[in-house]
Amino acid sequence: MAILEVNNLSISFGGLMAVNDFGLNIEEGQLYGLIGPNGAGKTTVFNLLTGVYKPDQGRVILDGKELTGKNTIEINQEGIARTFQNIRLFSQLSVLDNVKVGLHNDYTYSTIEGILRLPRYKKTEKLMTERAMELLEVFGLADEAEYLASNLPYGKQRKLEMARALATNPKLLLLDEPAAGMNPNETAELMENIKFVRDKFKMTILLIEHDMKLVAGICEKLTVLNFGKVLAEGETSAVLHDPKVITAYLGE
Amino acid sequence: MRDKKLNKTFKNNLITYLIVIISYALVQAMILSGNLSSLMQGLLVPICTYVIMALALNLVVGVLGELSLGHAGFMCVGAFSSAFFSKLTLEAIPNAGLRFFLALLIGAVCAAIFGIIIGIPVLRLKGDYLAIVTLAFGEIIKNFINVMYVGKDSNGFHFSIKDVASLNMEDDGLVIINGAQGITGTPTDSNFTIGVLLILFTLFVVLNLTNSRTGRAIMSIRDNRIAAESVGINITKYKLMAFAISAGLAGIGGVLYAHNLSTLTALPKNFGYNMSIMFLVFVVLGGIGNMRGSIIAAVVLTLLPELLRGLSDYRMLIYAVVLIAMMIFTSAPSMIEYREKIMAKFGKNKVSKEAE
Amino acid sequence: MGFISYLIDGISLGSVYALIALGYTMVYGIAKMLNFAHGDVIMIGGYTVYTIVSTMGLSPWLGMAASVVVCTVLGVAVEKIAYKPLRMASPLAVLITAIGVSYFLQNMGLLIFTASPKAFTSVVSISNIKLADGALNISGVTLVTIITCIIIMIALMFFIKKTKAGRAMVAVSEDKGAALLMGIDVNSTISLTFAIGSGLAAVAGFLLCSAYPTLTPYTGAMPGIKAFVAAVFGGIGSIPGAFIGGILLGIIEILSKAYISSQLSDAIVFLVLILVLLIKPTGILGKEIHEKV
Fold this sequence. Notes:
The complex is a heterotrimer of chains A (252), B (356) and C (293). With 356 residues, chain B is mainly alpha-helical. Chain B is built from 14 helices and five strands. Chain B has a three-stranded antiparallel sheet, with helices on one face. In chain B, strands 4-5 form a two-stranded antiparallel ribbon. In chain B, α2 (38-64) runs antiparallel to α9 (235-258), α3 packs antiparallel against α4 (96-122) and α7 (213-223) packs across α9. Chain C has 293 residues and is mainly alpha-helical. Chain C has one domain (2-223). Chains B and C meet through α5, α11, α13 and α14 of B and α4, α9 and α11 of C. Chain A: Keywords: ATP-binding, Nucleotide-binding, Transport.
């Protein structure tokens, strides 16, 4: 059954239809790609799914639960986590603490317990550190756990964002151009990481990407967005050979 | 790796606590050996107050990353609520220690409540707008206390914002808050030792809060609000919490301050926006987010005008020049570059990538 | 008639606030900094007039001209010495530096003129105007203040819309980098802004002192803060906003002094500011800024 179901989602900004009648169905455990030319509305779709923008119309259903109209925090708690196109880390916190912020809602103790350093503080913090280190390990960041996030090289910052998003224990992970700014080696490594995350955590992943090698290499299904509308959808290889899609990318 | 980090934070904090304790011991030794002028001795409790204020404000400015110019207002709430209590219970609670402890609780809680009341509407404003609104609130609090008359007689409490006569009290009535004349006859229950203990307490709260789940959530909002929201951090809740805790600690500063004076008035020089600005100067010069720096800056900058007393009329002018020069020296990009060049010459330019 | 005369007094005080707020708002627009020392420029302007008119016994016209010159030079010098090195630094560092400059100016005044208040001789020699058979009495200062403010406001709008230097100011405040690329001399544009702002503060200074004739080193502090409030009130960075904010603030202050409580008038002014910001978080004419995700 579909874990994410999106029906006729639309939003306009000052008369311009940024996303128009958008629909999407993702099966559990699928690696799904959302592609399209610049300005097609891909990031806007992510912002709609995560409650940053409220849609003018349409519905979002995650694992049978209605998410329409909920705010970002509620949506995250229902199980959607994301990364950002322009990296948004907690730059003055350590790499480890970035991930620990992601664990915030699953590992709790009160503020008083924290200030007084009561046993539950110590126990929980230990568990949090263990869990965070596990996640950092997956992305090869364990050795940099104590670095300030802003001191990481670019490629690793993108990976840290993924680790932080995973820390919230989502059902669906949204990756906004995870390979942007990476060199071919880093991209190849990232592809392995993404596949690994899917397999290990049984994660459903929806990603926006311009790097066609990555898209063709790991995505099972694609949706192509053009001028805010769905242009094509289906199996990756079929979509990529669709003449309509080629025209949209290359022009007439 | 993990242990190293824990040790490092722990060691850093320990040094800060030790600096406070050693300074206390030194000052006590100076007092006992008669090497501290009575003028300086009179400054000890105010200095403790300012240190607490700087720490409290640093929680908002450094950890939460928001600008407040109204912390003198929270200090004012703490001072007046606690002095009110102490004057009222002067006879009912003869034990000065217990009375002061209760006064502390009352001052902190009242100030924290004000922090929440003010925080709810204003914390959605940003930057300079938040700064001016907090300044405005601080001034409103000061202004209202100046026109407040509260008395108590056998029938209970009486309240007016006109004058003592409109309190309509019986003959046995006692005026507690007398408008612009404030509260007179507050028991002077605080002293330097209590002041230092309260600094240690404030430090304990701020440092432990910062290194906890709550602290991380607060700092994540500071570093990137949108990302914090995306991982499910409740922005309003943690902003408000940081603001309320900071206000409560400022209230404690106010309690300490009030119980060092037998007459408490809400004058601009005690609780005006200039005081809030002074606390901000401590925080910025000590290093935003750096608690040890706040303590040192508060002490040094309070002592500086006194140490310059020999220069009489010129001292405040020099203070101003020092302030400007220090800001340019520490913050101007060209100066930072210049300093780095000099450091590089002496081979000290090993920039540690490790998170502090 | 009482109400109308209070209203006119309010507009007059508001005109002074507006003149100061213009300086705040222009500097904020162009340098993105809160120039906390701006209020103290008023005090320097006041003392300049006092020295020339009361101490040296020269003409008030000379006093006013000297005051504008002194303040303009002072404003530009402060910018060059204290603010320019910090142009790329954090806003907080700039704010603290401005506070340092404010302390400096106040203590300079204290050193030269001592803390004892000086009686300021009004620069306005127009006598009171009686209207409605003497029921409405408007003082010359009040009238001159309001008219001066209106003239300056119109001149300023004209300067910004029609002159090259004025349009350069708008360009720098919109986008410093782009302005630089278009060949605008950003440094001299910023200097010009400080010059105009400080010159206006000088005018505000002698008008304020003519209406409230006691002069101390702290004379500028509170009007400075109020003008800052007025600028935020109207939407900081907006020139018409500063004008509207200043006038409204003056009216609110005088009316609450007259009808509610003279001791609480400041509190009421601040309360209104808070209410306005809660309804419109960027002030009456402020632009809203959205963060792109």
